Amino acid sequence: MVKQRSMAGWIGRGLLFILALLLLWNLWILAHVLVWKWVNPSATSFMREQLSQIQKENPEAELHHQWVSYAQISPHLKRALVASEDAKFLDHEGFDWEGIQIAWEKNIKKGRIVAGGSTISQQLAKNLFLSSGRNPLRKAEEAIITVMLEVILDKQRIFEIYLNVIEWGNGVFGAEAAARHYYKTSAARLGASQSARLASMVTNPRYFDKNRSDRKLLRKSSIVLRRMPYADIP
Q1: What stretch of H or E contains 65?
Q2: From CA 109, how far away is CA 164, in angstroms rounded?
Q3: Contact 76/129 with Cβ under 8 angstroms?
Q4: How far apart are CA 128 and CA 148, in angstroms?
Q5: Distance CA 135, CA 149 (A)
Q6: What is the pTM of this model?
Q7: H helical segments located in 36-154
Q8: 160: closest CA among 175, 138, 179?
Q9: For residue 103, is pLDDT > 50?
Q10: Which is higher by pLDDT, 14 or 57?
Q11: Cα 159 versus chain centre, distance
Q12: 114, pLDDT greater than 50
């Protein structure tokens, strides 16, 4: 009986310790989100993960990334990304429940993950703080961070950070680096077709970096191009 009580006490203290760590972790994230209302993030979890991978083959390798302001990014690219990734971006509060349901039904039908249903806010939460792995705990943490982003930052700031940090190729992050990597131009000068192509690469950027004439990419680009005039942006 005494041993059972002792064991229960240790388990209870262990759970409290884990809860305390989770609270501290989320407070650390909250502090960063608050700062990023005014200060631009210098790197993300995805950037650090990708840099670690490419430096295994080349220790001198560096990421291609250059921050530019929201005004310095082509409206074509903004519309293309909303049309491709999150048509209801301005209307939802971080989660597109209808989109999540549709993605769930597609995954069940195919028997594997073929659609995510993640909004721009959810993608940003994942990129900023989490790993590229898939597990229920990561999705739960992603949801918590998404709420923080939506409560603290306005839509334009969320979109500005997203445009500057998402992955666009092997070691390529952000709109400016992507524009220069693929089209030898600035993010401000991207045209409609170029923007549609870039937006269509976001789901699998490293693959499309190596397979730029992939038929799926070309087909999706044409669909995004048709949708762009109807996309609302901040």
Answers
A1: strand 64-65
A2: 35
A3: no
A4: 12
A5: 21
A6: 0.89
A7: 45-57, 75-85, 97-110, 120-129, 136-152
A8: 175
A9: yes
A10: 57
A11: 10
A12: no
